[in-house]
């Protein structure tokens, strides 16, 4: 019996964001956008989805006059990612 | 990156994960400025102390007051950098706290220097070996690793020779351990 892949993670951009955030302490919106090569609008929507699920925490502050969005993966997000990778492994070993 | 609702195959998923993780490698910023600043300050303080002892000046350790503006400069540079940084890796965090700990320890040693008869040089050189060597390992930069080892060697040498000569060893150690790697790091292109 195979585990279902978490639909929240099994999507290109959200998976990319989660993988990126897992390997750093924290990253800001521009950094994530550049590294994932995504558009600001799309990224913003996906970050909201991940944040609503509690997979990431999003902190909005100001850097001078510019708004600064800093994202960090949460414990829940790490657990979900680990489960996703475990499920992925089962599919590969099939 | 294309629209997110496309169905992913397991291979694509793995490719994304791998690519993103590789993307964050090499973000370790080279903080060569700190190595250069502290390298020069400590080297000059050591040489100053040696020179003042040689001319029988009663308070040779006054040379170390040079460290105070360097502290202020470090805080200022750190503040400026933190405003610029857009990402912080796990190793960046380890690195920052390692150097903060080192700073606190050396500061404590200096504050209580009198109790150990101002025999600070060998102790501080030995303690310097830890963050220098580990920084080299973290950013995979051999000159810093070598620098760390040289600090340890210099610490032993200071214990062995004692007297004013240990300040010359200190100046040489800090040149090899901070200044040289700092210059090399600066000339190296960021990964």
UniProtKB/TrEMBL annotation, chain A:
PANTHER family recorded: BSL7504 PROTEIN
The protein in question is named Transcriptional regulator
Among SUPFAM superfamilies, the record links this protein to: Winged helix' DNA-binding domain
Which residues does the UniProt record annotate as the domain Winged helix DNA-binding?
Answer: 13-92
Membrane spanning segments where?
none
An example of a Pfam family matching this protein is HTH_34
Q: What InterPro entries does the record tag this protein with? A: WH-like_DNA-bd_sf (IPR036388), WH_DNA-bd_dom (IPR027395), WH_DNA-bd_sf (IPR036390)
Automatic annotation (TrEMBL), chain B:
Q: List the transmembrane segments.
A: 33-55, 61-79, 91-112, 118-139, 144-162, 168-185
Which keywords belong to this entry?
Membrane, Transmembrane, Transmembrane helix
Q: Which domain of life is it from?
A: Bacteria
Q: Quote the protein name from its UniProt record.
A: Uncharacterized protein
Q: Which organism is it from?
A: Chryseolinea lacunae
* Classification of source organism: Bacteria, Pseudomonadati, Bacteroidota, Cytophagia, Cytophagales
């Amino acid at each position: 019996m195979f585990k279902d892949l978490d639909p929240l993670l099994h999507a290109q951009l959200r998976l990319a964001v989660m993988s990126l955030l897992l390997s750093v302490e924290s990253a800001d919106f521009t950094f994530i956008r550049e590294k994932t090569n995504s558009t600001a609008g799309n990224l913003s929507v996906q970050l909201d989805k991940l944040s609503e699920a509690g997979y990431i925490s999003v902190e909005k502050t100001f850097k001078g006059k510019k708004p600064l969005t800093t994202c960090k993966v949460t414990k829940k997000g790490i657990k979900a990612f680990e489960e996703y990778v475990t499920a992925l492994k089962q599919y590969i070993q099939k | 990156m294309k629209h997110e609702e496309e169905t992913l195959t397991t291979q694509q998923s793995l490719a994304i994960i791998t690519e993103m993780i590789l993307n964050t490698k090499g973000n370790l910023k080279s903080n060569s400025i700190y190595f250069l600043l502290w390298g020069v300050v400590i080297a000059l303080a050591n040489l100053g102390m040696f020179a003042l002892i040689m001319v029988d000046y009663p308070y040779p350790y006054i040379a170390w007051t040079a460290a105070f503006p360097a502290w202020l400069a470090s805080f200022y540079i750190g503040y400026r950098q933190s405003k610029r940084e857009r990402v912080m890796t796990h190793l960046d965090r380890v690195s920052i706290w390692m150097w903060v700990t080192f700073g606190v320890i050396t500061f404590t040693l200096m504050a209580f220097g009198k109790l150990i008869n101002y025999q600070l040089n060998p102790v501080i050189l030995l303690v310097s070996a830890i963050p220098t060597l580990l920084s080299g390992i973290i950013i995979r930069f051999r000159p810093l690793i070598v620098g760390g080892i040289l600090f340890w060697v210099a610490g032993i040498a200071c214990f062995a020779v004692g007297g004013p000569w240990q300040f010359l060893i200190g100046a040489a150690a800090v040149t090899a351990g901070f200044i040289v790697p700092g210059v090399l790091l600066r000339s190296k292109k960021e990964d």
